[in-house]
Amino acid sequence: MSLTDTVTRTADTSFPLLPALAERWSPRAFDAEAVIDQDKLTAALEAARWSPSANNSQPWRFIVARRGSAAFDTIVANLMGFNQAWAGAAGALVVALAEVADAEGNERRWATYDVGQAVAHFSVQAHHDGLHTHQMGGFDAAGLRAAFDIDERFVPVSVTAVGMLGDAEALPEPLRERELAPRTRNALDEVLLVNA
Fold it and tell me: Which structural domain range is residue 108 located in?
């Protein structure tokens, strides 16, 4: 039985949202047998490419590693904590990097913000096309930097697991419990400091 058969994952929003936003969530249970659809992965990367950035600087770069590749195994080895327990089942892992300084060494102050937007566009397009994503901050940035010989101008910001939904029952506890728990968010009134 799949997770979607047992628990609704659509957000209980206070105002209607686009389905791709309301239905998007971050599973940990991925199908370790499913091969990621190349066109869908490319579409998600294209969505990231077309996201907005300060001065159109486009400070994002990505390391894309499909399950079964040495690059994938290297990324999994640099994940921390529980992330190593589940992320290896994803169809691909995507490291998002921010170019925090240009070629002349000038600081790109908004680079990490812009990379966040690019990854958000990636995740929404992926969900629209039937893929699932889970963004992670628990990884060894220095390990990734060394393994992939990343230029110092670039900073690893996140790792995103992407693939097809798997069976939550295959997850170890307490990950299974977290996977099946209802989705929650702070109330809209709590996140609006000023709404004049």
Answer: 25-179
